[in-house]
Every structure is written in C-alpha cells, then in structure tokens.
Amino acid sequence: MTSSSRRREELHAGNGGLKQSSWSRAVSCKAVWDEKDEFLDVVYWFRQIIAVVLGVIWGVAPLKGFLGIAIFCVINAGVLYVYFSSFQQVDEEEYGGTWELTKEGFMTSFALFLVVWIIFFTALHYD
C-alpha cells in the first residue's frame, strides 16, 4: 500500500467518510487529493491570487521595468514551489514533474499581474 493511498484511507475514516471541499484541503497541510485536476485547479487559482496581490503592491509602490517583472516571476514560482513541495508534500511525479506544477497557470497569472500593475500604477502615479 502506497503512502498516498494510506493517507487517503486515514483521512476518509477520520472525517466520518465526508468529502472535504477543495479549498479546505488547499489550506490543510499534507491534504489528500483524490483527483489530479482538483489540485491543479487549486494551484492555478492560488497563482491568480498571488498575481492580483503583487500587481496591487507593485502599482502602489511605483515599481517599474524589468526588475518588477523578474521579482514577480521569482516570487510566483517560489511561493508555489514551497506550497506543493513543503506544505502539501504531493508527489510531483504524479502531476508530470516539478516543472509541470511550477508552470501550471503561470502565463495567465503573468498577464493578470501586468494588467493589475498597469492599472494601479497609472491610476496613482500618472500625471
């Protein structure tokens, strides 16, 4: 019996057989993900939240240029890597490897970040 199936059985017995929502598992350490797509959805939406928050911060603090983009990329990829490797402790190979999890939803979050950053920067700092 693998460790993930053992964890799944323990969780199922521990909560009386009730299924947890995706978001309650997202904030629970070492949660068991029955379906691959649920975890990938959580990674995708978590990345979008990070993009909005960092876009607002970058727009309010008048950060400009390549430095802002580079810092966003490092923070976005780093936070998600720590989330799925240390907090959730998922087996990356079940999801196609570390690179697949790291790039899940990255381009859409990058676009969202740019839009939010530009809107806030223009609204607050443009004369």
From TrEMBL:
Signal peptide: none
One Gene Ontology biological process: mitochondrial respirasome assembly
Subcellular location as annotated: Endoplasmic reticulum membrane
Top-level lineage group: Eukaryota
Alphabetized Pfam families for the sequence: EMC6
Transmembrane spans: 42-60, 66-84, 105-126
UniProt membrane topology term: Multi-pass membrane protein
Gene Ontology cellular component terms for the protein in this record: endoplasmic reticulum membrane; mitochondrion
Composition bias, Basic and acidic residues: 1-12
Positions of the UniProt region annotated as Disordered: 1-20
Protein keywords: Endoplasmic reticulum, Membrane, Transmembrane, Transmembrane helix
Family designation: Belongs to the EMC6 family.
Protein name stated in the entry: RAB5 interacting factor
